[in-house]
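Example record

One chain of 122 residues, shown exactly as stored in the release files.
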Amino acid sequence: MLEKSYAQLLEELIASLDWNIELVEGRQAFFAEKGPVASNELLGRRAAHETRANGVLYYEETLPAFPRSTDPVPIYTKDFSKSGVGFVASRQFLPEETVRIILPTFWAHSNRSLHQTQRTML
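Predicted C-alpha cells for this chain:
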C-alpha cells in the first residue's frame, strides 16, 4: 500500500512551490470571494462560479517558438464556467497552449485559448 494519499502528496507539492503571486486586494480578501457570478450576456460573458483555491499547473503542449519548463507552476483559481477556468499566476500564458490544472478536489484540463488575470511581481 501507499504510505501517503493523493491529497497528502498534492498538499506537499503545493507547500513546496514558490508562491510569488502578488494579489492586489490581498490574500485574505481574494480567498473570501466565492459563489455564483452574475451572467452578462451583453458583454458576452456566461455565468460562472467563483471558486478560490491553490492549484498546480503543468504545461502539456506549448508553442514551438516558446518552450516551457516541465516544472509545476503555482496558481490561484478565480472562477469556473462552462467555457473555461480563470486563474491567477505569476507568469503569462499564450493562446493555444494546453495545460493541466490540478486542484485538491479535481483535475481541470484545457486546450482552449487561455484566459487569465495576470499579475506579476515588479
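Notes: The CA atoms of residues 14 and 103 lie 10 Å apart.
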